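So, could you explain this one?
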Amino acid sequence: MPPRASIAPANRTAAVEEVTVSDRIRERLLDAKHRFFANDNIAPFIRDGELDELRQEIEGKLQAVLDSLVIDTEHDHNTMQTARRVAKIFVNEVFRGRYDPAPAVTTFRTYPAPAV
């Protein structure tokens, strides 16, 4: 496990620091000394309602990316609600196994093949 790092990004000021849902989840993972690589399941560290908060946080950050790309998502019907859709895709599909509890392991008994 790498050494514990500060959870606050460098561009935040101490006076106006807002603790985001991703900060809260990350803090729980660090406190538990639990790895959180891209393919790790972190479902046990997510509390009720936080997945929706996380989706909204991601949506806001994706909207900031679209704004930085100088894309008029307010008036262009092709890009309206793109940040919401992409955030939903990331949480519900791309990284679904990261946020949903891991399924129980299933075993199957094997039988000898019938004689031919």
The radius of gyration is 20 Å. The chain has one domain: 17-99.
